[in-house]
Design a protein that fits this description.
Length: about 600
């Protein structure tokens, strides 16, 4: 199965890059300042609450139990309960605020990336496959979510807790602190090793998840083809295989963490043991109180969890920075088709001058030195063998791409100087396969011009002779088309696509005739609709049907990216060249036309 190209590239950034990316993310988070500040306030409060516990215990033991003072003991108990309640309340608030800020940030970035993708020209989509873009919007945003929802909070809470706990411990007894921290070198070395190993394990898991996602996507969207060739078994076998590696990499990453967490846990117990041993000796000597030793051990227990969290966080930050970097790369791509300031007239010649073109993702030039002038109201057919560059010419004429060299102008205005709005209203391209969105037939036609009234919508359908047909459906033009138009026949789908163009009422119509042929009855209906749509407009049609070619005013024969013949049907047949040969082949195979 094909790999989803580019999903897992540069998952690692160097420290400098990561810093820059995170700084930029901070700037983007500026609107959530107030919420973040509130979250931080509650983080501080809940951490303080947590740390107050041992201090109160010490007071209860030394001044209450040891001194035999019931009132003190009772006060200590109440204070302890109060502090626990406070910590609970603050912890709850801190999660609410952190998630509010985090989700807000994610929503903002999701919308920004989506909006940016929508504005890109087709060249952008040649570079990024839809699978890659979808994984940016899902997996990469997901991996950032970990950081913005938990990571930052944990980091701040952990650092805060470690510092205050250490200060308190030093205040209780510097001798005990030094003794307990003897385990620190072991923890530092283990943490470094853990960061390295777990980062590798984490990247591996991510890679496998991406692969699994790609398999899943292809298996579902390609299910018709898969079933047609009875390949379900093979697909499932591949999916089983990909899940096996996913499972293995997960298990491996769990091994890495349990080893480390186990060690840190053991070190924590070891440190407590030291503290108890040395603490007991210090109590015996009368240097410290029992309450101090107990409080110290409770603080020690609080200290080790944040240490573990900090080690884990390293990975989260790494992978989030990598994900952010990828999203920023998309955000930094400027749309290469941008509008100018001139309005296009309703009438004019479409002039293609010395145009050469190369798709950005390939080296070979697809068109070379192409020059054609299409008169106002003329019908021009583009013909030629498959891969000749006909669709490419059509896309250039509607400025879905810009020519690499040369220029295309309508009514004397270079298409690059026209506003995008007037460009999309004057020149409309009807693609080979029109895409249908979820919604009704009416919704799908209206996509071309959302402000159209119901009457205009019906007029557009009527103009191509499709209204009666759709009105005969039980729910008329409000019939749901379902995903990708599975409710409509191939011919009806094309009618919807043509009605979109009719609704815009453009000056120039660029048609890429569907290569798949319809059955004769439907074909006649679509052809009639096309004919009505073309009337009174300049039309450039990439023609595959002989009848369309015959009805054209002139025919341009394109081969290998060059214009090889141009003229009327009779002229070209008289020339006895490439078109002449094609025409006689058609005559021979289709005697009735
Ligand atoms: N998005 C793209 N990226 C890179 N190369 C492309 C892209 N689209 C088309 N090509 C290449 O450009 C050449 C011309 O393609 P084009 O689609 O214009 O051919 P065509 O004449 O319309 O063929 P057909 O009759 O089969 O539709 C082909 O070699 C094709 O492989
Ligand atoms: Mg084509």
């Amino acid at each position: 199965m094909m790999r989803m190209g580019g999903v897992d590239d540069d998952d690692k950034l160097d420290a400098e890059q990561a810093k820059q990316v995170l700084r930029r993310a901070m700037r983007m988070a500026a609107p959530f300042k107030a919420t973040i500040a509130a979250a931080l306030g509650f983080v501080a409060l809940s951490t303080l609450g947590l740390l107050m516990g041992p201090v109160i215990v010490r007071y209860g033991i030394d001044s209450g139990i040891d001194a035999g003072d019931r009132t003190v003991l009772r006060n200590a108990v109440f204070a302890y309960v109060g502090v626990v309640a406070l910590a609970y309340f603050a912890a709850r608030q801190q999660y609410i605020f952190v998630n509010r800020a985090g989700e807000g940030f994610l929503r903002a970035i999701r919308i920004r990336v989506f909006d940016h993708i929508q504005k890109q020209s087709l060249a952008f989509f040649d570079r990024y496959q839809s699978g890659v873009l979808i994984s940016r919007m899902t997996a990469d945003i997901e991996s950032m979510a970990e950081l913005v929802q938990w990571g930052l909070l944990q980091f701040i809470a952990a650092v805060f807790l470690i510092i205050i706990a250490l200060v308190l411990m030093l205040g209780l007894s510097w001798q005990l602190t030094i003794a307990a921290l003897l385990v620190m070198p072991v923890i530092i070395i283990a943490s470094r090793k853990f960061q390295r190993d777990s980062n590798a394990a984490y990247l591996e898991v991510r890679e496998r998840v991406g692969q699994n996602l790609a398999e899943l996507q292809e298996g579902i969207s390609g299910v018709r083809v898969i079933q047609a060739y009875a390949q379900e078994g093979e697909q499932t076998r591949q999916f089983v295989e990909s899940n096996r590696s996913l499972y293995r990499s997960h298990v491996h990453s769990i091994r890495v963490s349990t080893w480390y967490f186990g060690l840190v846990e053991a070190m924590g117990i070891f440190a407590s043991a030291i503290a108890i041993g040395i603490g007991g000796w210090l109590v015996e000597r009368g240097d410290v109180s029992i309450g101090t030793v107990v409080a110290f051990i409770l603080l020690l227990a609080l200290l080790f969890e944040p240490v573990q969290q900090l080690s884990q966080l390293y990975n989260t930050v790494q992978s989030s920075a990598a994900s952010l970097d990828k999203l920023f790369t998309i955000l930094d791509t400027r749309p290469d088709v941008e509008g100018g300031h001139r309005e296009l007239d309703r009438h004019g010649e479409l002039v293609v001058e010395n145009v050469g073109f190369r798709y950005t993702n390939t080296d070979a030039s697809v068109l070379r030195d192409l020059t054609i002038t299409v008169a106002d109201g003329e019908r021009l057919a583009l013909v030629g063998p498959t891969g000749a560059g006909k669709s490419t010419v059509a896309k250039l004429m509607a400025r879905l791409y810009d020519p690499t060299v040369g220029s295309i102008a309508f009514g004397g205005v270079d298409l690059r100087d026209a506003t995008l709005d007037s460009l999309r209203h004057r020149i409309v391209v009807v693609p080979q396969e029109g895409f249908l969105f979820g919604g009704s037939i009416a919704d799908n036609v209206r996509i071309a011009r959302p402000d159209a009234s119901d009457a205009e919508l019906r007029d557009a359908l009527d103009a191509i002779g499709a209204l009666e047909r759709f009105d005969s459906f039980e729910e008329g033009i409000d019939t749901e088309v379902r995903e990708r138009g599975s409710r409509l026949s191939a011919g009806e789908r094309q009618l919807v696509s043509l009605a979109r163009a009719a609704l815009v009422d453009p000056a120039v119509l660029v048609l890429d005739e569907a290569t798949s042929s319809l059955d004769p009855g439907t074909e006649a209906i679509v052809e009639a609709a096309l004919d009505r749509l073309m009337t009174g407009r300049t039309t450039i049609v990439v023609a595959h049907r002989l009848s369309t070619i015959r009805n054209a005013d002139r025919i341009a024969v394109i081969d290998g990216g060059e214009l090889v013949e141009l003229g009327t049907h009779d002229e070209l047949v008289g020339l006895g060249g490439r078109y002449g040969a094609l025409a006689s082949a058609w005559e021979a195979s289709l005697p009735t036309l």
